[in-house]
Amino acid sequence: MTQAEASLIIRREGAVGHLTMNRPRALNALDLAMIDGFAAALAEWRDAPEVRMVLLEGAGDRAFCAGGDVRRCGRTCWTAASRRWRPSSPANTR
Fold this sequence. Notes:
The protein has 94 residues and is α+β, with helices and mostly antiparallel strands. It has a single domain (8-83), classed as GMP Synthetase, Chain A, domain 3 (2-Layer Sandwich), CATH 3.30.300. It contains two helices and three strands; from the N terminus they run ββαβα. The chain has helices at residues 32-46, 70-84; strands at residues 8-13, 16-21, 53-58. β2, α1 (32-46) and β3 form a beta-alpha-beta unit. It is flat, with a radius of gyration of 14 Å.
């Protein structure tokens, strides 16, 4: 998948980390690739002193984010995501 086709575009400009949800035709509804991308980028930037803030954007002009994409993910996607984001998960306690 190219950057133009990626459901989440991750980039850094100076002290700002940009996360752009890139599914405008689906109103930027979250899919598992986006959730994994958010987690990876935030983990990388968490301890990076050069990143002072993270800007979350939605591509297109119809919606910021419609929430979870039930059609694309279904129950399997959200079960996997919820396991990753339990409050007791080591990734959430740093």
